[in-house]
Amino acid sequence: MAAFGRQHPTRRHPGSRGGRTWQRSAPDSATLGIIGLICAVAGFFVLGIVLGPVAIVCGWLAMGRTWRGPRPIPPLVAVVLGAIDTLLAIIWLANTTGPTPGFF
Question: Residue 17 has what DSSP assignment?
Answer without folding.
Answer: B
